[in-house]
Amino acid sequence: MKAATGASSPVQQWRAALVAVVALAAVVICLMRFWGPDLHPAGWTTAVQTLPQTLSSAATCHESGQGGELCVIAAGDPLLAAGIGGGHELAFAVRVVGADQLSNDVRQWRSARPTVVADGAAFIAISLTWNIWYADTQSGLRLETGSLPSAAAARGFLLRSGLLR
């Protein structure tokens, strides 16, 4: 009988290393799925890519430091015509967040007693200062605009942009 020396064979060491690598890969995949929408590695969908085509093509966007994007629609863009933009550009922030964060955001928005325009798969509201708050529970898309000139302008923007169907 061989006496145990405490040393393992090269095959056992190789198997242990392989198990450790597989376990590490599984942890990385789980973390990417949990935090994935905010990571945006190459090839993943960005927040702007989840916007309706009309809105994404009208906006000029750049990455923000908070995992989302800051966007601006120029004052002369047809999306803001007929008084919707009040002659000014419209800025908005967009990002994809997890379900818990989106739920918290909607809860905070509701507490401000906005005019709720839709409350289903998408929560859409107009604040007392005519900002648009948009949360899509299916995609995790969260959008918040700057102030518009009026509630009617905000509703017009929602229709023209494709956010309200």
Major sheet: 7 strands, antiparallel
Strand content: 15-25%
- Average pLDDT: 84
Radius of gyration, whole Å: 24 Å
Query: What is the helix fraction of residues, given as a range?
Result: 25-40%
Query: How would you name the oligomeric state of the polypeptide chains in this document?
Result: single chain
Succession of helices and strands: HHEEEHEEEEH
Number of domains: 2
Tell how many strands the DSSP assignment holds: 7
Shape descriptor: elongated
Widest sheet, order of strands: 1-2-3-7-6-5-4
Compute the number of helices.
4
- First-to-last CA distance: 78 Å
Low-confidence residue ranges: 30-44
Classify the secondary structure makeup into a structural class: alpha+beta
Describe this structure in words.
It is a single chain. The chain has helices at residues 10-39, 53-58, 99-111, 151-161, and strands at 59-63, 69-73, 90-96, 115-119, 122-126, 132-136, 141-145. With 165 residues, the chain is α+β, with helices and mostly antiparallel strands. The chain folds into 2 domains: 7-39; 48-161, no CATH class. A 7-stranded antiparallel sheet has the order 1-2-3-7-6-5-4, with helices on both faces. The longest helix has 30 residues, at 10-39. It is elongated.
